[in-house]
Amino acid sequence: MAADLDKLPHRFFALTGEKVSVLGLGTVKFGRNRGVKYPGWEGASLPSDREISSLLDLCIEEGINLIDTAPAYGTSEERLGALMGSRRRNFFIVSKTGEEFNNGKSEYIFSAEHTRTSVERSLRQLKTEYLDCVLVHSSKNDLEIINDTPVLETLSRLKEQGKIRSFGVSTYSVEGGRRAVDLSDAVMVSYNKNYLTEKEVIDYARQHGKAVLVKKGLASGNMGVADVIEENIRFILKTSGVTSLVFGSISPANILSNIRTAKGLCMLPLRRD
Predict the structure, then answer these.
(1) Which has the closest alpha carbon to 92: 108, 110, 68, 117?
(2) Domains annotated on the chain, with CATH
């Protein structure tokens, strides 16, 4: 077991009191190989159970405790639930609701009934009594979803019931991101050195003590050159207000490389902003 000082730094997840690693592992590749943006992944073979188990152990060993999954990630939730076992206590699980992926196509549903059904299904598939965070999987119409559907109100009630511990929205717009900050615990935004549009949302969330997860930080694996990847990891994690950068990978070498880069930052101390 690596010494604690050798592990990734952790930051507070909003006001939940929970701490999450500054890098989070996205798991779309655990269960879906269709309609994905990762280069060379369309139709690729999914990892074996042994490979996924080894990746979970690697995360524990190196200090990654945030796992990002979703119903729209094919069999990702189901496989994680079957393989997690006693390791559940080591992870902060972020799942989602709103998007269903069937027969190669996405369908978006934000009704109260579907939201409850989706969360209950995630609980069953992940074999857990609660989800640490549930994000709304936006269809890019952020404001319409947030303002005109019951999805956030339903998640709030599920939080009151103890089925989820926090909730938020994976957004696509500055306006939607700011509104998500106002009404929930967390927001997930796209952000890297070449895409700064949603930096305003990060700043707004920091001012209001809300968690910020970053997606597309490494352009879904399309950055290619190692130096560019490292540069973006440093840039993102040095941005005040960012809680965790979520990246998808099933390569131990790639995961370890990203961890080494994050460890080399002399990260800021734990705090609640």
Answers:
(1) 68
(2) 8-247 (3.20.20.100)
